[in-house]
């Protein structure tokens, strides 16, 4: 079965492609390289032995996007990863975020309907829940006012996809990720953003390798067990596995709801200081960090109730924070030599 991956040279897209290939799917990719250098395609080939076709297309370009479907009328499913994802940047450039994340989605949805694609998986985020009152967070937790334009694009995208797809034959699932991190166990692939990363785990590995002199822990005065903020870090290969299982779920369950939302986290909250300790313990490296002010827009704590993913997808995350730190560090050592 042919699956189109949008954002296939990005972090989660490239890891998912590997997992899909290993599960027998035929994959093509579209990516504008706006925040990747395309090197993930070599990683995919090194791991799977397969060369992936990537269309270098900006999905805001209607004509170029439709051409992909004209050339591949046998696309049966789409996993839509392509989007900008930096929370802070989205506050500075809201129009860019709405233009890119929303218009690309609209063009993809337009072609899904036109070209009779059957399955749609969307890359959403736990950011749709804002600062939740009750933990862990399940899918019935009310959606709250978005904390950033980035968060708003995820909320609006879920709504647009629902409106467009509900009267069609397309089956869709929205995957709400918690905090993806880590790298492929082979160290042949990991996160390689074109812009400096802003997320905790790549900042930790870049500090340890010496690309950054030091790093900051944003806040030690939250109401948590050690004062630093709690997140649910999910290994990117467990996340990739959940995408493959989501497609298989849609394909194998004709009675599945036409439209659903599924949380993807491991159900365990880890504080920033615990994450740093895990890194130091697993790698034997010492991190140069200091405590700083809270980062604007951050919430104190969030972690997932993933029982729906377990039940519907038969998905059980296998990796924890130590595996995340180990694989992220192995990848950083390879990446920094490139
Ligand atoms: C945010 C978004 C998430 C999005 C992700 C992608 C929210 C609630 N979450 O996750 O939806 O998918 O970005 O970029 O908007 N930290 C430090 N020092 C650092 C960097 C981070 O202490 O140098 C802390 C943060 O304060 C936070 C934790 O580490 O408590 C994780 O931060 P980060 O990796 O940026 O992810 P989120 O902000 O949770």
Describe the 3D structure.
The protein has helices at 11-22, 40-48, 62-71, 87-92, 94-114, 149-165, 200-209, 236-252, 272-283, 307-313, 321-335; strands at residues 2-6, 26-30, 53-55, 75-80, 119-125, 171-177, 179-181, 215-218, 230-231, 233-235, 259-264, 270-271, 289-292. With 338 residues, the chain is α/β, with parallel strands linked by helices. The protein has a domain at 2-181 and 233-266 and 303-319: Rossmann fold. It has a 7-stranded parallel β-sheet, sandwiched between helices. The protein has a two-stranded parallel sheet with strand order 7-10. The chain has a two-stranded parallel sheet with strand order 8-13. The two termini are 35 Å apart. The protein binds uridine-diphosphate-N-acetylglucosamine. Residues 85-87, 125-127, 147, 151, 179, 198-200, 203, 215-218, 229, 231, 272, 295, 298-299 line the site of uridine-diphosphate-N-acetylglucosamine.
The CATH superfamily of one domain appears as NAD(P)-binding Rossmann-like Domain
Top CATH class of one domain: Alpha Beta
String of helices and strands: EHEHEHEHHEHEEHEEEHEEHEHH
Mean pLDDT value:
96
Count of alpha and pi helical runs: 11
Strand-helix topology:
Elements: E1 2-6, H1 11-22, E2 26-30, H2 40-48, E3 53-55, H3 62-71, E4 75-80, H4 87-92, H5 94-114, E5 119-125, H6 149-165, E6 171-177, E7 179-181, H7 200-209, E8 215-218, E9 230-231, E10 233-235, H8 236-252, E11 259-264, E12 270-271, H9 272-283, E13 289-292, H10 307-313, H11 321-335
Parallel strand pairs: 1-2, 1-4, 2-3, 4-5, 5-6, 6-11, 7-10, 8-13
Antiparallel strand pairs: 9-12
This protein binds uridine-diphosphate-N-acetylglucosamine.
Uridine-diphosphate-N-acetylglucosamine binds next to helix 7 and strand 8.
């Amino acid at each position: 079965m042919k699956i189109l991956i949008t954002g296939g040279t990005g972090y989660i897209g490239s890891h998912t492609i590997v997992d899909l290939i290993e599960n027998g799917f035929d994959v093509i990719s579209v990516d504008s390289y706006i925040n990747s250098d395309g090197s993930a395609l070599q990683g995919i080939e090194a791991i799977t032995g397969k060369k992936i076709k990537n269309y270098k297309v900006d999905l805001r370009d209607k004509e170029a996007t439709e051409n992909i479907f004209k050339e591949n009328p046998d696309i049966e499913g789409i996993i839509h990863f392509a989007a900008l994802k930096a929370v802070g940047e989205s506050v500075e450039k809201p129009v860019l975020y709405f233009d890119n994340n929303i218009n690309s989605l609209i063009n993809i949805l337009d072609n899904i309907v036109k070209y009779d694609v059957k399955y749609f998986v969307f890359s959403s985020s736990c950011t749709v829940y804002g600062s939740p009152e009750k933990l862990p967070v399940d899918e019935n937790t009310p959606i709250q006012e978005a904390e950033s334009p980035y968060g708003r694009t995820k909320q609006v995208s879920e709504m647009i996809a629902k409106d467009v797809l509900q009267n069609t034959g397309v089956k869709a699932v929205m995957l709400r990720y918690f905090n993806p991190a880590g790298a492929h166990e082979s160290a042949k692939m990991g996160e390689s953003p074109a812009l400096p990363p802003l997320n905790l785990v790549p900042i930790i590995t870049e500090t340890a390798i010496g690309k950054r002199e030091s790093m900051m822990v944003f806040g030690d005065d939250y109401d948590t067990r050690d004062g630093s903020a709690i997140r649910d870090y999910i290994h990117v290969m467990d996340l990739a596995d959940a995408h493959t299982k989501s497609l298989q779920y849609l394909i194998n369950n004709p009675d599945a709801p036409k439209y659903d939302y599924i949380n993807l986290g491991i159900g365990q909250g880890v504080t920033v200081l615990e994450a740093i300790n895990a890194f130091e313990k697993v790698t034997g490296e010492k991190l140069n960090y200091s405590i700083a002010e809270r980062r604007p827009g951050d919430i104190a704590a969030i972690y997932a109730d993933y029982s729906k993913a377990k039940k519907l997808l038969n998905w059980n995350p296998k990796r924890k924070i130590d595996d995340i730190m180990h694989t992220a560090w192995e990848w950083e050592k390879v990446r920094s030599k490139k």
